[in-house]
Each structure stands twice: as structure tokens, then as C-alpha cells.
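[job 0412] stage=fold_complex status=start
inputs:
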Amino acid sequence: IFAASSAFGQQDPLPSWNDGAAKQAIEGFVEKVTEEEGPDYVAPDNRIAVFDNDGTLWVEHPAYTQLVFAIDRVKALAPEHPEWKDKQPFKAVLEGDMKTLAASGQKGIAELVMATHAGMTPAEFETIVEDWLAEAKHPRFKKPYTELAYQPMLELLSYLRDNGFKTFIVSGGGIEFMRPWTDRVYGIPPDQVVGSSIKTEFQDKDGDPELMRMPAMNFIDDGPGKPVGINQHIGQRPIAAFGNSDGDLQMLEWTTAGDGPRFGMIVHHTDAKREYAYDRDTKFGRLDKALDMAPEEGWTVVDMKNDWKQIFPPEPAP
Amino acid sequence: IFAASSAFGQQDPLPSWNDGAAKQAIEGFVEKVTEEEGPDYVAPDNRIAVFDNDGTLWVEHPAYTQLVFAIDRVKALAPEHPEWKDKQPFKAVLEGDMKTLAASGQKGIAELVMATHAGMTPAEFETIVEDWLAEAKHPRFKKPYTELAYQPMLELLSYLRDNGFKTFIVSGGGIEFMRPWTDRVYGIPPDQVVGSSIKTEFQDKDGDPELMRMPAMNFIDDGPGKPVGINQHIGQRPIAAFGNSDGDLQMLEWTTAGDGPRFGMIVHHTDAKREYAYDRDTKFGRLDKALDMAPEEGWTVVDMKNDWKQIFPPEPAP
Ligand SMILES: [Ca+2]
Ligand SMILES: [Ca+2]
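[job 0412] stage=fold_complex status=done
writing structure:
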């Protein structure tokens, strides 16, 4: 028994991370908050870690997965909506005119989401999401999106949980777009997922009580919305936050401004060869102000190209 | 070791419950959903149980605890608000005119909450709640409110958790009024508390990122709001719901209308001697329609007087 636990203790919990400043910062933080006699000890109840999703836990280029989903849904539903042929941003989607779609901005994307994500129960929407994920493939990597989570981040999630952390997703993406698969892919159950949402209404038609998804925004869990979403869902200020864009800025600020030991990390996409390289000039996952602030705020910046031995999980044995 | 675990296995997990239909229904449900080879087996991930708070887990008479808190806060803050002397419902509170206060209804209570629960950070509000709970005593039982949780329900929470359930509070009360103490009293951590809320705003004054509680309602987690709140926070339909009033009706309906084994329970306050007796005719915790529906819906009604051996936890040894 001694030999076994000793061997276990020496196993590297982050094998896909190169030895370097980022890995050392993570391990140093976890060691100090878990050292019971140390000055920086944090009780397990307060070991709350929050993770952005798109670009932090899985691929977000060439476009957010949920946007690709919404576009596919517009195409699938188009026969029932002849009016979409002449109405933006639907027209742009149906004509494959990504430039016009992009120009429609957040408002345009919200219209697509509203039109395609509402008018059904949460259970029905879950089935649509699951069916789509089972078929859809990433255009470059030719794999299901759920196989394009970052292996080093999966190891990090497990490492934190093994050290008594409770891990949450806090994403600008739709809460019910993520919940069907986050447990399977990340080990994060539905109630530990925070995200943007449309309104949901209780209806009791014909004595059959149901929830109905409505075409109206309820909450935008992005930017200054992230600390609000965290407070609403988790009810505690986290001690560690992980993001990749300016949409995570306020979450990083609020998390790391708390008393006691704090950890902030930014995943910087620097690897065009194995994944993508982007920061200040991109429509999806723009990282500008947060990158500038990182040094003075003490946030660890992960350089994907140099810090990660591999990007994606290994292929399952054939 | 064998003797110890055998004895443990035979220990009654619900010692404060009299043997009777309610206790048998609870135990029967838990046994069938945890029997791995049985037809009603439910995987641990789906063992979600939701509990109303006021009148289900702790005392709500002669008035909701949070209303007593709001009244005490109005009195404490009155010197800073001379205008309250002439403004309802504050005037009624300051003059001890409970009839006028009651007549102001939900709207009046919401005004008290807004005026006394906003204009501070969540952490500051938590301190105010903790300080108040440490001092306040129930007018009849002369004990802190947090000692007036129902012992049989505390046993039920533990029993469910010991059987792989995840337990949540889903209350019409304020989410941040409950979170400071639910872990200590019920073993339910802050992120497993769902409740009503006022709006919270992210502010970054002087480079000090903070959340600020605003005097505006965000969400009413009562009646048809309860299934909506459950869906938003938990993201799964529970398999068991526990309530005590018509405010729990839609939660009970939605929970028990799902497929597979389901459990709904209503705590009926029938014990004027040891606690209170009320149902159809009360301002706090009105139970009317849900009581009528219980038989046909198959909901278990707990008769506090006959089903519970004791109401409150035993006094700690002196
Ligand atoms: Ca992101
Ligand atoms: Ca109640």
C-alpha cells in the first residue's frame, strides 16, 4: 500500500503541460491553498474555480460552436420560414454570406439564437443539441466538437477537483447549449454550469406542466455579466478564474481582487500550427485589454505553443 | 468491522419520524431508486431533490423570518430615513401597525426588502444577516431562528445525501438571505440554494471591482417561478420535491410529472401545541389548492403532529 500511494503521489497530474512558468504557477497555487498548516490555506468549501468555455476549454475558431449550431438550425428550419429568404440576418445565413452575418454583430447573432433556440421545452432543446453534436464535425479538424476540448485543461480540471476544488463553467455561451454534454466532456454537472440564457416560462396546458423556452433574452453572462452570474449561481467569490478573452476581464478582476490567495489565468492562442493564433484582432475571442493588464494583475498567461505538449486528447485506440 | 457496518446498516436514519405512511413512503422511494438491479433505479447524477425553506425546513410563523429581519432593518435604518415616518409601508413598520403592513401585501414587503437589502455588496449584506441571526430570537420559542429547523427534515436531508442525492433549497425567500447559513444548518452549500433575488451590478470604481446590490427585483422564485428557478440553476428536473404551501404547487407538479419514479411531499402544519397549526387561512404559508390536489397527484402529506416524534433539534448538552 505504501509503495502504491507513493507512486501515485509522484505521478504528474498535468502530463500535457511543459515544465515552465505556467505549470509552476498552477502547482504552486494548489500546493499553498491545500497546505493545512500553511499561511495561505483555504478550506475546501471555499476552493471555487471558474472556467470560461469557448477558447478556454474547447476550440472557438473559426467560429463559436454555438453560432455554427444556430446557422445549421436556421438552414434546417428554413422550409418552415419562407420569410427568412428576405430578412436579415437569416438571408445572410441562407446565402452563406458570412460577411453580412458578421456585420450584424451581437444583435444579429442574438436574433438567430432567439429564432432557433426557443419555442420548445428544455428537454426538447437538449435533444436537438445532442443530435447536432453527434453529427457535426469541426471544418478543420474533422472531429466532433466535443472531442476538441483541450487536453491540458481537462487535466487541470481533474487536478483541481482532486485537490478539493469545485469546478464551474462561467461562459458567455448558452447555458442549455452546454449542459447536455459538460458532465461527459469536462466532469462538470449541469448545476455547475453558468451561462447566458433566454427566458423560460412555466406553462400548464392540458394539465401537463412544462417549461417553455421563450424568444427573449434573460441574461448575458459575458464581460461584467460574469461576476453577476457567478454571484447569482455560485454565491461565493471564486479563488481561481480561467479565461481567454476580454469577455473574462471582469471575472478575472473580481476573482483576483478578493482577500487571500487568488489565481487568474489567461489561455493565449499562439499556436497556428496545432490550433489557432489570435488575440487582439479576431471576431471570436478577442484578447486585448486583459492581455495588457495581465502582468500588473499577476495573471498567468498560458502560451499554448510553448506551454502545452499536446492540444487535444489522444485518439482512442482503434 | 463487520459488526460495525452491520450495526450501521440497521440504524434508523429517520429516528424523529414515527412509523407511518409518510416515513414508509420516503423509505420506499429511496430504496427503489437506489436498488441497482431494480426497475426504478435512478443513477446518482439524476438524484436531485429540492426543498422549499420557510415552513418546510424551518419555522415561518408568526411571520417569515426574512420579514422580521426586514422590519428590524427598517427600524435600525430609520434615523437615516426621516421620510419613512410619513411613507407606507415604512410608517406601519415604525408604528408597529402590522395590520396596515399586512394590507400592503407582496408589494409592500418588496418595498421593505428593496429599501433594506440593497445599496451594499453581497459580502456586506452577508455580514448584516449573520449579525442579525446571531442576536435575533423567535418570539415564542426564544431561540435563534437557525435553531428552529425541523429535526425530522434535517434527518431527511442527511438520509437523502447518504443515498447519493444532491439536495437543493428552492425558496421564495431571498437567495442571499439564506446562503450565509444554509451550509451550517442544513449541510447545503451556497451554490445549491435557489431563491428570489434583487438585481446585482458589477461596478469598478477606483479600480476596486465590486458587486453592488440594487433596489430592483431580479427574480421571484415562488409559484410558477420555482420550476423556472430550478431549470435555471440546477438544469435538471428533480425526482423529489418537498414543500408546504401553494407556493410549491408548480414545483411539485413539474417534479412529479416527469418520467420514472417521482416523489412529492407536503409538510402540513397540524401541531399547534409543539409548533403551529395552519393551512387554508393564513398569511404565511397558505396551503389550499396543493392540499386538495395531493391525493390524486400521489403526493405524501406529512401530518406534523402524528408523523414527527419531535419538531426541533435536541438542546445541546449544557
Ligand atoms: Ca472565451
Ligand atoms: Ca414554504
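[job 0412] summary: The first helix of chain B runs from residue 2 to 10.
[job 0412] exit 0
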